[in-house]
Amino acid sequence: MQIPHFPEANHPLIKSLFHHSDQELLNLFQSYPDAGKYFTVIFCRYSPIVYTLIQHSARSPVQADYLFTLTWRHIYYELGGLNLTEPQPGQEALTLQNWLINITAFCINELKVPPTEAIHYSLQATSPPLWCYVEKALDQLPPILRLMVLMAQTFHWSETRIAAYLQAEGEKISPLEVANFLQEGYRMLEDKLPTDIRTIYLGEDLVQS
Length: 209
Prior knowledge:
By secondary structure, the chain is mostly helical. The chain is built from ten helices and no strands. The protein has helices at 12-15, 22-31, 37-55, 61-79, 96-110, 128-138, 143-153, 159-168, 175-192, 195-202. The longest helix has 19 residues, at 37-55. 26% of the residues are buried.
């Protein structure tokens, strides 16, 4: 299996941060939670190591890609509370690289990866940092909008099928209303993504956004 290439590594926003040390990037990530570029730089710096470790344990390339993304999602949520400068009593100080290797080993051993045919994720279509921030934005949507967006995007349901499901659940809603709600959901979802993530992954002009 070949280590994937991530085009965001060549984005000017990302390249402008490459000179920062791991500790500086960690501090910036924790200090500016509404910015996505610091996590993305850490991802670009260490994705080859993480992928190399994972590809030796996965049964198929599809499972390797999915486990790789699940691992980075786990890393994303753990990084917020990581303190490399003050280790736990009785533990040696870790570098970010060693910590990432430990987390990756934990994910390889503990995370349950579905069989290949049950995975509908494409690493080429959605890079892990984008997935993390989209998931975070989804969590901020009103429940009914989040449900509709997931039905449309994850399960590829039509407006008619979504309306029928919601009607069966007691919601009086027409397919046309579903279509309007979906447009609102997509607009809110994009609005809740960090500005720099929209710039890096969606090609938005940073000045305008």
